[in-house]
Amino acid sequence: MSMPSSPEPVPESPVTGPRDPALEIEHGLAMRAAAERLGKEFTGIGAETIESFLETSYEHFAAGARIPTFLPLMAERFSRQRLRALARVEGARDRPTVLFLCPDNAGRSLLALGLFEELAGDGAVAWSGGADPATDVDAGVATAMGERGIDLADEFPKPWTDEIVEAADVVVTMGGVTAPELPGRQYEHWDLPDPGGQDLDTVRAIRDESEQRVRDLLARLGVGVKA
């Protein structure tokens, strides 16, 4: 979705087909506001790059969206992650960064991400992505993580991009996915079952195994675990 200088309804989208003209105007305004916010946050990155990230992120989520209301918000959040990764590639690496990848970014990689962020606190950075992102987070995964006090309400399945892989120190793959192999990165594969569609007890067991692996990874990275 482009961000024209003045809001004009676009009767047909090349991504998802016909849309509500009023929604097009609303989304155009929201995307321009997002570009302004990101521009103030990432002053060292050009406006064209920021707008490009927003547009490509929007188009990705629009392609599979059942309810388009939150597309600008999702595009802004994913663009912010991509811009942080780009800034890290071009700047200092002050904390270890881990990227968790699985086929759909709805289960295994989100389990690992949530546990990593909870245990590492500010001591490390983590992102996640999927080779073919699902539409929604797996309900069983959200429930199992909620039992641990980890809220996945703001998470949504998303892809990974070149700048995100380049910014990672460690890339953890699950479910047979492969990632571009770059020099200086550590790669490891975690053989974890897919929690998708499993009963809650099975998801809990996968969660607990994920936690043990995350704790081991943090120890190897020299990152202290929050009490």
TrEMBL record:
Phosphotyrosine protein phosphatase I domain residues are 96-220
Give the record's GO biological process terms.
response to arsenic-containing substance
The cross-references to Pfam families, in alphabetical order and at most eight, read: LMWPc, Phosphatase-like_N
Arranged from A to Z, the UniProt key words for this protein are: Arsenical resistance
Q: Does the keyword Methyltransferase apply?
A: no
Bias class Pro residues marks the residues at 1-12
| Annotated stretches, region: Disordered | 1-21
| Protein name, UniProt field | Arsenate reductase ArsC
**Per the UniProt entry, what species is this protein from, by scientific name?**
Jiangella aurantiaca
